[in-house]
Amino acid sequence: MPRFDNQTVLVTGGAGGQGSNHVRAFHAEGANVVIGDIDTERGAALVDELGTRARFARLDVTDESSWSAAVSAAERAFGALNVLVNNAGVQNPPAPIENTDQATWSRILDINLTGTFLGMKVAAPALRRAAGGAIVNIASTMGLGGTAHYAPYVASKWAVRGLTRTAALELGRDHIRVNTIHPGVIATPFIHEPAAGATAAIADFYSPEPFAIPRLGEPSDVTRLLLFLTSSDASFITGSEYVIDGGLLLGPALQPEAA
Q1: pTM for the model
Q2: CATH number, position 245
Q3: Residue 112 burial (CB count, 10 A)
Q4: Kind of pairing, strands 83-86 and 133-138?
Q5: Does residue 3 sit within a domain?
Q6: 8 A C-beta contact, residue 74 and residue 122
Q7: Residue 237 pairs with which residues in a beta bridge?
Q8: Is 188 a member of any domain?
Q9: Degrees (nearest 5) of the Cα angle 166, 113, 70?
């Protein structure tokens, strides 16, 4: 039996490269899926592709009323909400701290951090009404260390870690589990296209060659981990952090010819 039969999953940024992969996988595993995104055109196209058991909700993650509408839409359409995936996120154009304007700082934290906070705030009562469920917040390996020129993004992802652990403590007795996934460099438009205001994409100056698994991650790598964490197979896991980076944080791997 598919792992997510009769369950409803809301994925933010669900029309994007990584998010749409999550949505398709949950749907293939039997879930009702709600695609939360500001991109109406791509969201509608994904609903058309999936057909039954899929809905689009225009969702601005920085707006609490938008969240309330999306969660209500999920419950109206499918009767309950069982899983929330806080996947929506944006990157700042690279700049040292002293050259980072406050508007950029605020925008990144509004989407990456406040959006995650509002999602959990609004979805928690719905998950409680469903007698429990799971939340996964997509963070980043940049939330586990410092990265020059990406202060707003790094700060937002570090903060998501603490927010996740707090939520796990608050919601555990309601049978709601909350965990984070920390992807490394994943081959999506997020990596291959420049951030707004930037002239180069991360992939233009990044090579995975020195690392233990010398390739970029694929969206499916992250999706498989996400499906596990939101399934009953992970029923005793909460407040935990899962790094999926091919060894990036381990540092360069010494090759035999260099030994």
Answers
A1: 0.93
A2: 3.40.50.720
A3: 29
A4: parallel
A5: no
A6: no
A7: none
A8: yes
A9: 95
Range of 160's domain? 8-258
Which region, left, alpha or beta, applies to residue 59 given φ > 0 means left and ψ of -120 to 50 means alpha? beta
Catalytic residue among 150, 153, 206, 242: 153
Please tell me the distance from the alpha carbon of residue 46 to that of residue 166, in angstroms, as a whole number: 34
Is the four-CA dihedral 172, 65, 23, 194 of positive or negative sign?
A: negative
Q: Is 153 a catalytic residue?
A: yes
For residue 254, which amino acid is it?
L
Angstrom distance (rounded) from CA 125 to CA 78: 16
Instruction: Kindly state whether residue 42 falls inside one of the protein's structural domains.
Output: yes
Determine, yes or no, domain membership for 2. no
Supply 93's token pair.
Answer: 């154009």
Element of type H or E holding 85 = strand 83-86
Which of left, alpha, beta for 78 (phi over 0: left; psi -120 to 50: alpha)? alpha
Residue-wise pLDDT tens digits, 13-51: 999 989 999 999 999 999 999 999 999 999 999 999 999
Q: At what angle are helices 40-50 and 17-28 packed, to 10 degrees?
A: 20
pLDDT band at 209 (very low <50, low <70, confident <90, very high): confident
Residue given tokens 């058309």 in the structure block = 48
Q: Nearest-CA neighbor of 82 among 150, 31, 116?
A: 31
CA–CA dist 65, 124 (Å, integer):
15
Rounded to an integer, what distance in angstroms lies between the CA atom of residue 48 and that of residue 44?
6
Number of domains in the chain: 1
Distance of CA 248 to the CA centre of its chain: 19
